[in-house]
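== Item description ==
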Amino acid sequence: MKWGRGTRKNAFAIAASVAFCVAAADHAQAQEQQGQAQDAPQTSTLPAVRVNASADNDDTVGLVARKSRTGTKTDTPIDEIPQTINVVTSAQIEDTGATSINEALRYIPGFSSYGADVRSDWYSALRGFTPTVFVDGLQVPNTLNLSSWRVDPYMIDSITVLRGPTSVLYGQGDPGAIVDVQSKLADGGRYREAGVQIGDYARKQVMFDIGDKIDQDGKWSYRVLAVGRDGNSLTGPHAEQRFAISPSVRWQPSANTSLTIAASYLQDWGDASNNFLPAQGTVLPNPNGRISPNLYTGDPTYSYYRKKEWSVGYQFEHKFNDIWTFRQNTRWMHLSLDNGAVWGGGLDASDPTEQTLSRYAGLFQPNYSRFDIDNQAQARFGTGPLEHTVLLGFEYNRQNSTDSEWLALGPSLNMYNPVYTPVSTAIFFGPDSFGQTNTRTTLDSFGLYAQDQVKWNRWVLTVGGREDWSNTRQDDIVGGTQVKQDDSAFSGRVGLTYLGDYGLSPYISYSTSFNPIIGVKMADGGLPSPTKGRQIEAGLRWQPPGKNLMLGAAIYQINQKNVLTPDPTDPTGTFSVQTGEVRSRGIELSAVGNVTRNLSVIAAYVYQDVKNISANDVTLDKWPVSIPLPRQMASLWADWTWHSGPLDGLGFGAGIRYQSGLAGAADNSLYIPSYTVYDAAIHYDMPHWRFAVNAQNIFNRTFVSGCQSESACFYGNPRTVIATARYNW
């Protein structure tokens, strides 16, 4: 089988060969070391300097994380953080059988999905807004949705979702949430694992995780993870394939100093798995019946998707004394995409039978490079009865991007009896072409921030502020024009938490955000101001004493101002004014952990009310629809595993996910029905081995996950079944 177009090495075979050779060599080495074990001197292991708090075994037990650095950029117990924070651990990713970040977040409050797609994780709204994505505390490139940065779930230690405005620590972004992915990195531990997966849609995957100390004293350690996958798209004739590798090395000369150097490489080949379909035939009646969820709207001979991404960086930490600690996180990232696409554009108006789909063709070739450096000085000290954790930081990032796009009207397609007219690049030079757009954008951002966590008896006050400056330059290479934009903004957070009896910790907080609007001109020739968000939140966490269980409840309201809305004085509809405002408010409930020794649960519920409370068009008092935004969502995953007796190691899991009906189209004229789907798992652990079978949407329910407009509706994922076998030694 070929990779995309042309001849490529088979990544599945590469990863399988490497895993086999490493495993065989390491097994031989282990045998030799075992024979020498009795004569070998005993050496001490240096204590680990925690770079990623959620990755530390003392802070995470199974499904429950006790600490997180994401919420404050310091090692802070979660029950002291005055904002809602959800941590999806590697155990939860494994138990639920998640094959992407999108799937890993299915059982946290308020998360819904477009469906599986090799191109992107297509993050849904959290608290009404698209979340900003980070990896190991640094933001990934800000890209088009079809070219978003991805991390294979096998390489993830945990995923932290910090809800509400986060600009005080992380700079520009919408006020809904950030998603921070923590990688599996070298930490001085010994890792020996190899695994295989098989599933429907011809899925085949091999993976390995190898790590250990390099020297006898444990000052140097390494870790390498790799994944190779081959399979078929959910729709269409093309394969979906991936090769990813993530090596890291840690140097820890003493208990006070740690340097971890990490790199990653990922390459995806494939095509669009989910399709843009008209409302007529999906959520609205069509005289020809329902459109098949297996309909492929692309072109078998033209459509392709080839993405490469790599990163290299380091995490440095040095503790000078009992008071001062310095940390520096640095990373360079690059992503390139070559994508030929054909997609649906709604019903063809020339066909009264409503059988024909209009289609568009595009050629997308964006490139993104991003550099980030975050310097942090932390001081822990006391002033009388007060305990302080002070954080001072300076952050700089620079992103360069080019975006070359060709667009044209493609050949129509009969949705009920598809016959594919071949598409070629010649279409972009013909009469149906919309021409080429080619832009080059450079963004420089600087941020200075300070935070103090003040603890007095059972009270914890968290207060912080940040000033950001950003400079944007965008060149229209085709049009020969240039736009420059300078923005600055102050953001802050203040929160109060009470550490009560019986593991109860109520909190209240106020936080703000900002997000520059790039590449837009106002009617007066000026540039728009950044959008600004503010949130008030109150919540309650409960960690029952003696239980590995965490429950949470939160109520919040977010207002985002300076939102663009059409200029009522402009009859052409070309310009906008910044009088729009979005209000989001809701309630969130969550529970995760062990109810008994054998029974664990992950439960979530959210009720939200999101509206455009100020606008100059049909969106006034309507729900935003650019991403799925249901009013209610609920989910429950339960796992029963025997830990003793004749069934020791055997376990069963079952899940249910509910999403209420939601609005579609800008004027909310569409209604997308509610749906409920069920998941299941069976797994068995024995010495050195783990076997598991995970099934999603086990009853194969056909449902629509969302509609951006009458011409852009999406089916949710069909039933998928994946079997996994992993060997540890």
